[in-house]
Amino acid sequence: MLKPISPNASGAPAARAIDPGVRIGHVHLKVADLDRALAFYCGVLGFELIQRYGTQAAFVSAGGYHHHIGLNTWESKGGSPPPPGTTGLYHVAILYPTRAALADALYRLAEAGIQLDGASDHGVSEALYLRDPDGNGIELYVDRPQEQWPIGPNGELQMVTERLDLQALLTARET
Question: Whole-prediction pTM value?
């Protein structure tokens, strides 16, 4: 079991820990063009369109869930991404169930001609980084089994950022 970093070590006030069963359920993104966003999230990544509200909003998911990603143009139709140096969402992380599924995502991106911003082995996970058509940061990743995570001598997690071998990842793809 990992040892949490002491709240006092970071200067944050001590607080009661959140329930360990809490999960992040979905993300809702502002987009400039709904059809373009759907072409990326459904056409390239393979999410399923669950519901569409005309030209203003849509909900997509994997496996029939009500929605993992909401896309809307309510405040952003025709807009541009926020300029560098501003606050906002850094990236949305999409967890894949297997290394083969992540390899398939890499294959889809390559087929669509979508450039990666980066690809990293973090010790705990393997991750692909890219941007959607609206400039939103996307991380596609797979976790390693917890027993393989790099743990230091005092029980602390020791994540790393090393180059991910994309060719080796592609060999994990189920055809």
Answer: 0.88
